[in-house]
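Worked example 3 (structure in, sequence out).
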């Protein structure tokens, strides 16, 4: 482990892995401390079985369903707020902030005697390289183009194709600046909550069990997480759910997922304002 104050190696050695290393190779604490900023060194983490992974995704998907089917309609009826605003509030407080707290606390348990550097290392929040930025750009472009293609085909097959629950199109004439204020907390907690939980915390644990198939499994679970939003949202989410985890696993840097997801969901908010999508 390292000292958060000056980066010196203290305590017992920490096992870590470098991309391309054999799984059993060990590195010194000093290497781990330096590697947190390069995004190359990764700590060894406990394995996460497929049933255990399904349980984590399942719990949060049930919270999401609770919000979609019960809390949003209640907030809209009880306080007279648009369904969209009710979603922004309930989604943030009931699903996404708890997800963010869960990810940080669980990762912290695995780095209990380390500082912020150890926590960042565990969550794979390494410094972005030029290659990482290029992968993030390519992943974003691929996800956007594939999603657009699927949406276009869906609307040719069914001109009435609409993605997401009706409340996502219920802004009740609120001015865009006020919608933006209501959306920003959801946006931040959504990107950080999902990426730190699904990719920062869970994906490294999944790798210990599923190896190269981890990105695919992580993405499929992520897509299924949205079941309460309807099959249309799941269909449109599929490209992002397949591309993003695969790129993050390949580059071993959660910041890439944060960038891709952030750009994609910002576009989703613009789609909501246009009345054609979900954020």
């Amino acid at each position: 482990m390292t000292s958060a104050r000056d980066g010196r190696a203290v305590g017992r050695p920490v096992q870590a892995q470098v991309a391309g290393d054999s799984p059993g190779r060990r590195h010194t604490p000093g290497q781990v401390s330096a590697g947190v900023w390069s995004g190359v060194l990764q700590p060894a983490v406990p394995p996460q079985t497929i049933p255990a992974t399904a349980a984590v995704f399942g719990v949060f998907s049930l919270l999401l369903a609770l919000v979609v089917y019960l809390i949003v309609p209640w907030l809209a009826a009880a306080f007279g707020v648009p369904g969209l605003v009710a979603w922004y509030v309930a989604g943030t407080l009931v699903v996404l902030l708890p997800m963010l707290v869960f990810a940080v606390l669980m990762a912290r348990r695995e780095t209990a005697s380390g500082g912020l550097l150890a926590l960042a290392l565990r969550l794979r929040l390494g410094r972005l390289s030029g290659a990482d930025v290029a992968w993030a750009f390519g992943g974003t472009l691929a996800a956007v183009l594939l999603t657009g293609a699927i949406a276009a085909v869906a609307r040719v097959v069914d001109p009435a194709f609409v993605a997401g629950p009706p409340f996502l199109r219920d802004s009740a004439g609120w001015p865009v600046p006020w919608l933006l204020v209501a959306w920003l907390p959801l946006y931040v907690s959504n990107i950080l909550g999902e990426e730190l939980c699904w990719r920062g915390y869970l994906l490294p644990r999944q790798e210990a069990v599923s190896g190269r198939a981890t990105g695919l499994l992580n993405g499929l679970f992520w897509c299924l997480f949205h079941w309460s939003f309807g099959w249309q949202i799941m269909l449109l989410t599929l490209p992002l759910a397949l591309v993003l985890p695969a790129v993050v696993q390949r580059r071993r840097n959660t910041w890439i997922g944060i960038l891709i997801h952030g750009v994609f969901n910002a576009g989703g908010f613009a789609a909501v304002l246009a009345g054609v999508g979900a954020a």
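Notes: Residues 1-44 form one domain. The chain has two domains: 1-44, 45-274.
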